[in-house]
Structures are given as structure tokens and as C-alpha cells.
Amino acid sequence: MAKSTLASMSKEQVLKIALTAGKILLVSGAETYRVEDTMLRICREGGMTTIAAFCTPSLIMIGEETMEGASLMYRVTHRGTDLTLISEVNDMSFHMPTWGKSFQDTMAILEEKTMRKPRPAREEIFWSGLAGAFFAVVLGGGPLEFLAALLGSLLSMAFVKAVSPFRPSSFWETTMAGAIICLTVVLFRMACPDLVMELAIAGGVMPYLPGMAFTNGIRDFMAGDLLSGTCRAGEAIFLVGGVAIGIATVLGILYL
């Protein structure tokens, strides 16, 4: 079996590779225990035995457990969901025992993944609209609820994508999305009185419910990462609250 080229790299280079891989995972929505495990695996293949990693949903730290040891830290300010990147980096880390690329080539691969263009906004808008519409049907809605949820999800996601360059917090994004969906459904009902608003609103907001964040929080709890689990579960509850506040605000203004 060929020896990994990581063993011939300096400690600083190995740490840089590990931190970059962990950053890609965390920004893409990976569980914190997966981030830590990936970074530690890379460092051990580089011959670093006294190594420790610490990760929260907004911070990564990795370094040697010695007074003279090198360490690196990265602050995460914006996260999303990209299962393709998580799978690619995770697979890459498991190939580290036979890794044959130089430090420059390895960093070039990771930088390509970091700089990869996201999916076109129009695709996310389209699929979010369909998801909301079909959820309304699953919840018991008919053609009117399907159309109202479709329109609400499309408009709300278009708004979210339009303001995304300004990097608003996820709470304000979901709050405004809930308000836009509720307002759209209310206006739709004025034209079609037979519309069941509850089903249309419930279906429209489904793309914004943080199911993955809550699931990752539970998995972090199960892995023993109590701090990360608490943060992710709290974030999920906070985002759900944002959706509810947006809906309640519109209903309160229009019906009180």
C-alpha cells in the first residue's frame, strides 16, 4: 500500500488541509461530530498524534495539545445545506491513508470545492414552490390550496434569494418568508373564498422548517456533543418561531 503524502508534509500544512476540509463540511451543514472526526483523521494520517479538535455550529478549532504546538481557528458566519459537498469531502478524508497528492494539489482541490458556484437561484425558487404546493396537498388540500401554496412559496423564496447578497440572519429570512406566504394566501382567498387558508399556509412554509438543523442537533446530542446539540436545536426552534411570527404579524394586522 502506498504511503500517504500527508506524512511528508509539515504540521502547519496538515492543519491547513484539515481546517479547510472541516470548514467546507460545517458551512455545508454537516454535523459537528463529523467535522471533528474528519479533521482528526486527516491530522493522524499526517503523523500528528497529540491533536485535538473542537467544533460548534459557528466555530472550528484544531491544534496540538502541547505548549509549542500549532493551532488554527475559523469563525463561521453563514451556513447552508449542500449534501454533495459533504459527501465529497467525507469521501476524500477516507482516502487519506493512500493520498498521493502534494499540499498544493490538495489545497487546490479543496479550494475548488469552496469556490464552487451554488445552484442557480431559479432552480431553488422553482423546487421550493413545488415542495410547498405538494405539501399542501399531502396535508389534505385541493387544487386551490396547491396553487396558493405554490405562489406563496415561489414569491417568498424569490424574496429570500433577492436579499441573500446582503447576508441577513436566518431568523429574519424565515420571518419575512412566513409573512409573504401568509399575505399571498390571504389575498388568494379574497379571490377564491373556498380556499382553506390553514392548509395553504402550512404547505407553503414547509420548505423553511429547519428539519435538518434539528436532526443534526439530535445527532450531536447522541454523539455526546452537548454544546453543539443545544446550539442546533435552539437554532431550529428559533427559526420555527420566526416563521410563526411572520404569519402571526400578517394575520394580526389584517384581522384585528
From TrEMBL:
The keyword Nucleotide-binding does not apply. Residues 17-253 form the Threonine/serine exporter-like N-terminal domain. The chain crosses the membrane at residues 125-151, 171-188, 195-216, 236-255. It comes from the Bacteria. GO terms for cellular component: plasma membrane. One of its GO terms (molecular function) is transmembrane transporter activity. The keyword Cytoplasm does not apply. InterPro entries: ThrE-like_N (IPR010619), ThrE_Dicarb/AminoAcid_Exp (IPR050539). It is found in: Cell membrane. Keywords: Cell membrane, Membrane, Transmembrane, Transmembrane helix. GO terms for biological process: succinate transport. Its main location: membrane. It is a multi-pass membrane protein. Belongs to the ThrE exporter (TC 2.A.79) family. This is Threonine/serine exporter-like N-terminal domain-containing protein.
